[in-house]
Here is the input.
Amino acid sequence: MARALKVCTGLPGKRCVELTASGRCPTCTAEAEQLRGTASQRGYGSRHRRSFRQAVLEKNPTCVLCGAEATVADHYPLSRRELVLKRLNPNDPQHGRGLCASCHGSQTSQHQPGGFNRR
Ligand SMILES: [Zn+2]
Ligand SMILES: [Zn+2]
Here is the structure.
């Protein structure tokens, strides 16, 4: 005895005609999750990046490696992208450390050979 299937509730701005037992069909569920992820990443982007940086520099006012004045909030030990992949909040200052510009430069090249966002 099959449960009555309902039409998928779809997504904001998207109608879907899949039949599903509850709420959204798997496709729309996955899309909704993706949308939520990118929307919040995008929506908070610059504002949160600034507050992440501020919070990290408050926590580490001096470079954790050489003791010079910290000017860069570095994601450590996981890169921002790794945090996102693990569904951790990359804007949480506990994932960051303060570095001076020159240490950040050398750390970044070790961390990500070939530069940012290669791949
Ligand atoms: Zn659907
Ligand atoms: Zn340094």
Q: What stands out?
A: Residues 26-59 form the longest helix (34 residues).
